[in-house]
What we know:
The complex is a heterodimer. Chain A is mainly α. Chain A has 13 helices and no strands. In chain A, helix 4 packs across helix 12 (274-284). Chain B folds into two domains: 47-151 and 327-371, Periplasmic binding protein-like II (D-Maltodextrin-Binding Protein, domain 2, 3-Layer(aba) Sandwich), CATH 3.40.190; 159-320 and 397-434, Periplasmic binding protein-like II (D-Maltodextrin-Binding Protein, domain 2). Chain B is built from 20 helices and eleven strands. Chain B has helices at 5-24, 61-78, 90-99, 111-115, 123-126, 135-141, 164-170, 178-190, 208-221, 224-232, 240-253, 262-268, 271-279, 294-301, 336-346, 348-357, 374-385, 393-396, 401-413, 418-434; strands at 52-57, 81-86, 105-108, 142-143, 146-147, 149-156, 159-162, 287-289, 312-315, 322-331, 389-391. In chain B, strands 1, 2, 3, 6, 10 and 11 form a six-stranded mixed beta sheet that branches. In chain B, strands 8-7-9 form a three-stranded antiparallel beta sheet. A two-stranded antiparallel ribbon of chain B has the order 4-5. Chain B starts with a helix and ends with a helix. Mean pLDDT of chain B is 87; it is low at 19-39.
Amino acid sequence: MAKTIALPVMKQKRWVPWLYLLPAMIIMSIFILYPMINTFGLSFQNADSTASAATTCREGQPCWGVFENYRYALTNELNMETPQTTWESFWISSYGNTIKWLLVMVTGTVGLGLIFAVLVDRIKLESLAKSIIFMPMAISFVGAGVIWKFVYNYGTSQVQIGILNAVITSLGFEPVAWLSKIPLNTFMLIVVGIWMWTGFCMTLLSSAIKAIPEEIIEASRIDGATNFDIFTKVQVPIIAPTIVVVITTMVINVLKLFDIVYVMTGGNFGTNVIATRMYTEMYTNANYGRGTAIAVILVLFIVPFIIMNIRRFTKQEAMR
Amino acid sequence: MKHNRIPWTILAVLLVSALVLGACAQQATPTQEPEVQTPGDIDCTGVTAGDTVSMLYQWSGEEEAKLTAILAPWSEACGVTVTPESSRDQALLDTRVQAGTPPDVAFWNVTQLSQYKDKLVDMTTLGANAANYAGYWGEIGTIDGRWLGLPVKADVKTLIWYSPANFQTAGYTVPTTWEELDALVEKMVADGNVPWSMGFESGDATGWTGTDFIQDILLVTQGPEYVSKIITGEIPYNDAGVREAYEIYGKWAKDPKYTVGGAEGTLSTGFNDAILKVFSDVPEAFMVKQSGFASGTILGTYPDKVYGVDYDFFGVPGAKGLQGGSDWLMVFNDTPAVRSLIKYLSSDKGGQMWAEVGFDLTPNAAGNASYASAESIKKAELLSSTTGFTPDIGDSIPGGFGSVEFGGITDFVNGGDLTTILDTIAAAQADALAQ
Lengths: 320, 435
């Protein structure tokens, strides 16, 4: 009697992949998706989320109905008497400051990181130099804020305990109130950010530079390229994808930036950024509607950069 | 036998975590005698020995120890265990209240009374003894007709600190009227001395020393009623009276002849450093306007300084009322143990205990004679002889007014346009009070 033996067939049901994804999806829904949807909902309600934001409108004042919290978030910092006051107040508003942070800090960290990455590639004590540049990254933001607050300290007496003012006064100049002089103070804060994050950019860019095959560099040397030519025409184009990733990562970091400003000036003297303003509205002022509206605006700013990062990532994966 | 190891590893991990969890868990309540004793005048009605009261407050270290000492007679007499938590982070309290898991009681600021008004239990229901509190305390603690908070601790802000030794050397006398103060300030400037030391810097609350000063000027020029009307919104913040106070203040706070370092000094000096500048070996100024806590700051840096000789204070001359910070006990859960706590703190014994321990001042009038230090007695005299007590304007108007007010005065000293600033603050005032 011939027997037919049924061999086990490797065939998955269509829902099986979903099963594997389920734990991750549950966690993401609870901790990411639900809070986001809830935040979005709260941003259309009043301070303690008991009524629509439209009820907070006051007579004789501009009102955007249910979008009232967004009107507050977008226009309240501006002095719209004349175009000129609007323009001036924009540049010390949280949005103007965030733009300053983006422009100066992203170019500063990526630019310096790139220069350091190329320079340390050529010196003997490479790992030591890299460690020193990377070290600020190991300090917490709050710690760095406190350290730099001392650096910038403005003393009223003859003795300056802030090192920067001590140097300046010893050279015969007047001490400067670094943290309260507008618009200087925002840039002094950005210096702290650059100090912290340059090491991060340098490390990523340095590993990309090291991944360039030695033959290419040698070939270009033989063709008569100077060091500068090699940097601008060979190394930079090759590591361009990495540079883009570093830039987008830094943009996201800067948009979310909170600690340095909160610790060093508390958002005073026109140094507020979007994230510190969000905190103030949310916790100091206990206005959940306005706080979440600012949060939503912040997310909207960040989303395009996250998409860019993910696209770049999937492209690289596809190439493998 | 290699596989046998895995269960052992798991067992070991479980044991370790059990130990760790055990260490984290609350300590078992010490077994008390079953019958509830009621010695002296502590009322423990309805309390079962072993009951707990969960508390949230902002005090830690020495301050926390003082509170524990004050509560000790009550917790011993009634056999109540206190489960305290200490945090300065208001977000923690907010989160708990929003989540529906508030502590039984919280010691917090007066603003929280209106913020949580729907969730708090009436003091009258809890059996608080109103007779021990001056009328103005009841007014501040009453929200929408309900008495929601028990004032437990007060700190007088309407004070000017100075060094009697330095005053004597320079030949200055303590002013008793606002005109005398103004004349003294001008005399100091004429002598080439700097009268004031001011310091705004205080993290995200930068500016509060300035708004305190404004409020004290308002108490002189307008009086406590006027300040109360700003708090209720009857008087807009851009009123002429407020403007005048800012102008008086600005004359001093922005000019290096009147204050250490001028505007930049005022903005970048920390509020504690500003106190010390008056009492350092080479004093940079003669006076600093600051709350009652200044003596703590002085002694913290200069432990050898003697009260009455090296440092002393006088009430802002001519002020028709006081400004002060106050801490309020608010109740989220009505239990017999909580009731006994409220009764104890509002009783004569509670007030005396608070004063004996000397945790700032107690609003409970029964404590007036029980203070240990000459400094506290002088402050308590100021507090009990005043006709009005106004809470900080910035702390009393909810919904973001405070941070706008702090930011406003900071901008003003930093050279901002006064009309624009006062209009902005007035808009925030109207906005906050309309909610």
